[in-house]
Amino acid sequence: MIWDHNRDLMVERARTIFADPAAAAYVWGTGFHWYGEDCFDNVQAVHDAWPDKQLLFTEGCQEGGPHHGSWELGERYARSMINDLNRWTVGWIDWNLALDAQGGPNHVGNYCSAPVLVDTARGTLLRQSSYFYLGHFARYVRPGARRVHCISTGSPLEASAFVDTTGEISIVVLNCSEQPQPFWLQVDGRRHPTVLPPRSIATYLG
After folding, report:
1. Cα–Cα distance measured from residue 153 to residue 43, given in angstroms and rounded to the nearest whole number
2. Of 84, 87, 135, 197, which has the fewest Cβ atoms less than 10 A away?
3. What's the rounded Cα separation, in Å, for the pair 155 and 127?
4. Which ranges constitute the DSSP H helices of the chain?
């Protein structure tokens, strides 16, 4: 893989390597992170320019400490996963699945958050919102699943859909707004009315 850094410069760096056929022959795809601006369109741009090369999200974590109980933490994970996977990303890797309650250990004090924080004094696990948001993907989008065409016609909802090797469809829908969002879920001409509560995520199976 090349780049393995943020989305902002990934098109420029991919062009440098992929424009050289001798170098491109050794490259499977482009790795990228989420720090800085979202720049989701850059992920799509790399795929559009080099569709024979893969895209892999190789690192993401919430900086600035453990963020105990933060709802925005899970929403950041879900927004990134939905938007990256909708743009041909084939996998998504967290940086730290578990850290201690301080957000470490870290030899330079760069404490972060993680889906699971370990209270080493009490011997307990503290599951953060990102743990549950990740579950909407990890539990239902199994190895071998394929992303299928899915659009959200009503802002502020964001969605992605997948079909697994058995033919079951999973649709993940995110509502980061402060208002409940009623909508119609339509699959193969069948429409189902539903409502997504404020600041919530849901997975629909079909």
Report:
1. 21
2. 197
3. 29
4. 10-18, 21-24, 40-49, 71-85, 129-138
